[in-house]
Amino acid sequence: MSATTHDSHGHPRLAHHFFEMEQQHECAKLGMWLFLLTEILFFGGLFCFYFIWRIMDPELFVGASEMLNWKLGGLNTIVLIFSSFTVAMAIRSIQQNKRNACAIYLAITIACAFVFLVVKYFEYSAKIGHGTLPGTSFHDLHFLAEHPEVKNPHIFFSIYFCMTGLHGFHVICGIVYIAWLLYLTLKNRFDSEYYAPIEMGGLYWHLVDLIWIYLFPLLYLI
Amino acid sequence: MSSSNSTHDSHQPHITPMWVYFGVLGALLILTVVTVAVAQVDLGPLNLPVAMAVATVKAGLVALIFMHLVFDHKFYIYLLLASLVFLAVFVIFCLFDLTRRHEIRHEVAAPIHAEAEWYKELRIQAAGLDHGEDHGDSHGDLHGAKTNAHSEKHAPVQTPAAPQH
Amino acid sequence: MSAADSNTNYINHTKGIMSWLLTVDHKRIGLMYMIVVLSAFAAGGFFAVAIRLELFAPEMQIFPAAPTEGASWTYNKAFTLHGAIMVFLFIIPSIPAILGNFCLPIMLGTKDVAFPRLNLASWYIYMIGAAICLYAIFFGNSVDTGWTFYTPYSTSSSSSVTMMTFGVFVLGFSSILTGMNFVVTVHKMRAPGMGWFEMPLFVWGIYATALIQILATPVLAITLLLLIMETTFGIGIFDPANGGDPVLFQHFFWFYSHPAVYIMILPGMAVMSELIAVHSHRTIFGYKLIAYSSVAIAFLGFLVWGHHMFVSGQSEFISLLFSFITFLIGVPTAIKLFNWMTTMYLGQISWNTPMLYALCFMVTFTIGGLTGVFLGALGMDIPLHDTYFVVAHFHYVMMGGTVIAFLGGLHHWWPKIFGKMYSEFWGKVGFVFIFLGFNMTFFSQFILGQQGMPRRYADYAGFEKTQLFETYHQFSTVGSLILAVGFIIILIYLVHSLIAGKKAPANPWGGLSMEWATSSPPPAHNFLEDPVCKHGPYDYDKVRPEDI
Mutation test of the interface with chain C: which of A26, A49, A50, A159, choosing the one with the most C Cβ atoms within 10 A? Predict the structure, then answer.
């Protein structure tokens, strides 16, 4: 049973169980917002991990966050903010039936996401090289020598790798999602009446940006 | 309302003007600079709240404008706030536990989050490290020693880690 | 309804296994859930019987005292699997995925849920999660940590904790997506004329449940993920050997698992409102209060998780706070109970099988709920924690509450789902076995617990009260066998009804909500014409069932 029909039911992309496109669009938007709420609670557990150790053991953060390169983190922040802008512009374009502009903006968004991942790759490989790893793999002796007062330094890096790792996984999923949206845009699937999937993709991408907006200062700066 | 209703959506979606998006982009970039600048100043216990406040302003701009919350039904804002409220309850109640455990447990010697046993070996190695050594050698030598410490750690833990202090 | 249409329904309009495995019809998906979820119930029940047989006498009879080469199936694994299978594979999906999927869209007068393909995806995710868990159980080393996976034992146990918890992680997504689907459907897809307060209370209950599913389950997901990280990488959050805090694991775990128990009971209460109103043929008393109380329970349920941790070593301050808030949840629950009782008063009560289950619910759930309040009192919980009193409490609410309500709902909507009537006589016989068996099994456990019998112990020889424990345990075991016979009786007559039952009319019970306005079983798109809501779901004083 196909979810869409091409009978006299209205727009060709109107699913059989909806009355009109607006209802379908509103359902998609509400559905994606509910999914974003689940992501907030999901990452929230990691933020709880962060805040508990921050309050119980502040020296851990002061010492260990020096190992993080704030310039690279700042670059990633700017890249993601810009990609949020481009995805918002993509939605704005398709609302006005400007299919090509939409595709270009989506492509730029994906490019920004790749830049983000490349920067993260450099950061991670530097850490691995120094032995600044999460958990029991931690063997950064230089850090231990320079910061003898920090106990359990691996926990900071556990927090760092878990939070940025999970965030990076969401970036990868976002790339796949937006790439698929780009493909469909180029296939003329969307128009000013039917663009809900792009709006959903935009909302998801903004959340990825939002989480990074918090991660950057909390991990890199303070 | 029948299924053969073919009148178009009378509700036109709100199309945000370009200048609003550019304005928010600019504001976000400026605020990022602010974030870094403010972090250079050591405010002691205020470091965390100030950083969170700046981040929240940025997040608010993204959520309200880029994600259209300010143009949509208020319901979506309530949803977002609801999830943040529950998250706050989670973190705050956990902190009520963690920060107040010592109140009736002062007779117990072991602190919360004592340092892991396997640091003993690592710290000895770190103390023996000459600061002028280059990275390549040190990692090569110690990798073998590290794997020993690693495998010791994985023996089943019978008793909790002894307190370090 | 034309004669040609009366024989085509959602079951027979397309044939072949692929038309089921690739369906996006919420009714078919509900049935697919029914098969797998009830199979899980049977598996969990199997472990339950094994536990009860082991406890029949003080020493070890069936399970070895410790795992050995040839006998790695320990008692610890039996109770862990009983709990994990029953909680994650049976009771959390049960009413929402089966009855919710089937009834909710029809009650709202719409053709399907908001995201039909996502609905099918939820089912497949459930199957994948279940497969991973089964793999851990039969091809891995199973799990012996208790269904709560407390650290540091779970991070150092030689059992397959990682694989099992990953399976549960996957199952969580099935729950989340179902919740999302229901919330959007209720918000955006009600039939014309149906406002929030013209919806059946079943929908309100499922809606409140869905809100919890969306907000709480992600925290379980991150908890299990962090547990896997701790076990694999030693990240140092939960395991004290790595600098972590084992009580923090409990906070993380129970932040989901307490709201999870409201995911279990709210759908049961949702079913109850339908059963009581329809079988008393009375307008429900206090519609808005019941509706709001569902949401209140959902909200308050997030604030009390620490009452599972009174003896864990958490701070005294937070224990007091949690204990205080726990008492508040009794209020909306009691409101529902009094409203149901008042609805029955001066009603024309039909003493049929669904109504008997509804009455049983009111008794057994009240016992369960009140004993929950006993345990919520900090002073009482200290001696009762980890005794059989707790086991009895949660079985009274989960089985005496949710399972009884589920059975009631199953019998209530069976004619609608399958178009067949079951034997009312055997329905009552099955009920008697269930009621008797259930109370024998679990009431004795209150006494066992209060007398000091610890939970999760298989060998209770050598205690001062061993003789006393043995007597009550034997009584409980006999009860559990009667309970098992009851379930088998139900299975037999229900399956028999599919083969040789009388054809069910569209509205066998005289209900007024929209599902009774369409044929039994419903057509593929639920209604032959798009319905319009013209009256409330319980307006027995204004509308006659024949006229809907």
Answer: A49
Residues 6 or more apart whose Cβ sits within 8 Å of residue A50: A159, A163, A218
Given B3, B86, B105, which is nearest C302 (Cβ)? B86
Query: What is the C-alpha separation between C543 and C548, in angstroms, rounded?
Result: 8
Q: Which of residues 83-112 of C touch A (CB under 8 A)?
A: 110-112
The domain locations on chain A are 42-221
- CATH pick for C3-547 out of 3.50.50.60, 3.40.710.10, 3.20.20.80, 1.20.210.10: 1.20.210.10
Q: Residue C234, by phi and psi: left (phi above 0), alpha (psi -120 to 50) or beta?
A: left
A142·B115 Cβ contact <8 A: no
- Number of residues that make up chain B: 165
Q: Using a CB-CB distance cutoff of 8 angstroms, which residues of chain C are in contact with residue A41?
A: 215-216, 218-219, 222
Cβ within 8 Å, pair A51-B95: yes
Q: What is the pLDDT of residue A57?
A: 86
Q: From CA C6, how far away is CA C523, in angstroms rounded? A: 8
DSSP run (H or E) holding C207: helix C201-233
Name the A residues in 191-210 with CB < 8 Å from any B CB. 193, 202-203, 206, 209-210
What's the pLDDT tens digit per position in C215-228? Answer: 999 999 999 999 99
A42-221 placed in CATH 1.10.10.10: no
How high is the ipTM of this complex? Answer: 0.93
What is the separation of C-alpha A111 from the centre of its chain, rounded to a whole number of angstroms? 14
pLDDT tens digit sequence for C157-216: 878 999 999 999 999 999 999 999 999 999 999 999 999 999 999 999 999 999 999 999
Q: Chain C partners of A36 at a C-beta cutoff of 8 Å?
A: none
The pTM of the full predicted model, rounded to 2 decimals, is 0.92
Which chain A residue lies closest to B127 (C-alpha atoms)? A145
- DSSP string for residues in B42-102: --GGGHHHHHHHHHHHHHHHIIIIIT-TTTS-HHHHHHHHHHHHHHHHHHHHHHHHHHHGG
Q: What's the angle, vertex CA C306, arms to CA B158 and CA C232, rounded to 5?
A: 40
CB neighbours of residue C9 within 10 Å: 18
Q: Could you give the C-alpha distances from C212 to A174, C208, C266, C514, in angstroms and in order?
A: 26, 7, 10, 26
Pick out chain A residues at pLDDT < 50: 1-7
Structure tokens, A79: 């890249």
Cα-flanking dihedrals φ and ψ of residue C56, to 5°?
-60, -35
Q: Which chain B residues contact residue C192 at CB under 8 A?
A: 1
Out of C236, C242, C303, the one facing B89 most closely (by C-beta) is C303
Q: Which segment, C65-69, C210-214, C240-244, is predicted with the most confidence on average? A: C210-214
Residue B16: the pLDDT is 86
- Residue B163 corresponds to which tokens in the numbers above? 């307190």
Interatomic CA distance for residues C234 and C130, integer angstroms: 27
- By Cβ distance, the residue of C116, C223, C243 closest to A45 is C223
Residues of B with CB under 8 A from a CB of C: 1-3, 82-83, 86, 89-90, 93-94, 96-101, 103-105, 112-117, 153, 156-157, 160-161
For residue C502, which phi and psi values (nearest 5 degrees)?
Answer: -70, 150
Type of residue numbered A93: S
Q: Give the up-direction half-sphere exposure of residue B57: CA atoms within 13 A in the CB hemisphere.
A: 16
* Residues of chain A contacting residue C214, judged by C-beta atoms under 8 Å apart: 34, 37-38
Judged by CB atoms closer than 8 Å, whether chains meet at C314 and B97 is answered as yes
